[in-house]
Amino acid sequence: QTCALPIYDWQVYEASPYEYTIKLEADMFIPVSIDYWWDVLKDRDLAVCSTIRNYKNDISYNRFYRKFIDDNKLPDCYNAITYFKKSDTAKQFFDIVKNIFDNWEEYKIMLKCNLEEKATTDWVYAIAALIVGKEKVLMPEFKPFSMIHMKQFINDISSYEWTNTFTIERSEEH
After folding, report:
1. How far apart are CA 173 and CA 35, in angstroms?
2. pLDDT digits 0-9 by tens, 68-115
3. Other residues' Cβ atoms within 10 Å of the Cβ of residue 95
4. Is the pLDDT of residue 1 over 60?
5. Pairing state of beta strands 78-85 and 46-49?
6. How buried is 114 (Cβ within 10 angstroms: 0-12 exposed, 13-18 middle, 19+ buried)?
7. Among 22, 77, 145, 162, which is 20 to 30 Å from 54 by CA?
8. For the packed helices 88-102 and 121-132, what is the interaxial angle rounded to 10 degrees?
9. Alpha helix locations (H) across the chain?
10. Phi, psi (rounded to 5 degrees) for 42
């Protein structure tokens, strides 16, 4: 089996050979240094992104894609950026993530959702964050620990195909 499937996301904890890891999704563009994140995160066991931005780099409070999260009163989690230190707390978190994916059929009966829906990694991380404790998983005050999310309603654009909506120009200076 491959780690590329969301149901195997829990494996990042065991797969990382490092004591400290920042997991970023492969389709991210990082235009500035994030080296200072290590200094901010080093004393924590775990941190999952809880802030997203639109293409203008403004924090987005749009809830269009968060119905499951809101209906189940779960914390906002965006698994695309996850930091962890090899620790009991991080191991517990990823063990819970595995358990939720493995037992999604039982979990979804207890939740407000379409029973035909498959678990998303964001949903599973949110449930695990609630179980472990939001204060141990989230850092809502660390706003730079965020990403630009190119979804239609977050960016108030007319098309789902954002790549056909924007013209991107880049100068040699940047």
Report:
1. 21
2. 999 999 999 999 999 999 999 999 999 999 999 999 999 999 999 888
3. 14
4. no
5. antiparallel
6. exposed
7. 22
8. 130
9. 12-15, 37-41, 67-71, 88-102, 104-110, 121-132, 134-137
10. -55, -30
- Mean pLDDT, the chain, whole residue set: 88
Measured CA angle at 52 (ends 149, 141), to 5 deg:
160
Q: Which residues pair with 59 in a beta bridge?
A: 53
**Strand 146-148 relative to strand 20-24: parallel, antiparallel, unpaired?**
unpaired
| pLDDT bucket at 2, cuts 50 / 70 / 90 | very low
- How many C-alpha atoms does 51 have within 13 Å on its Cβ side? 14
Instruction: Provide the greatest CA pair distance for the chain.
Output: 54
User: How many CA within 13 A on the CB side of residue 63?
Assistant: 8
The predicted structure's pLDDT at residue 43: 96
Res. 168: pLDDT tops 80? no
What is the three-class DSSP state of 112?
coil
3-class DSSP assignment, residue 137: helix
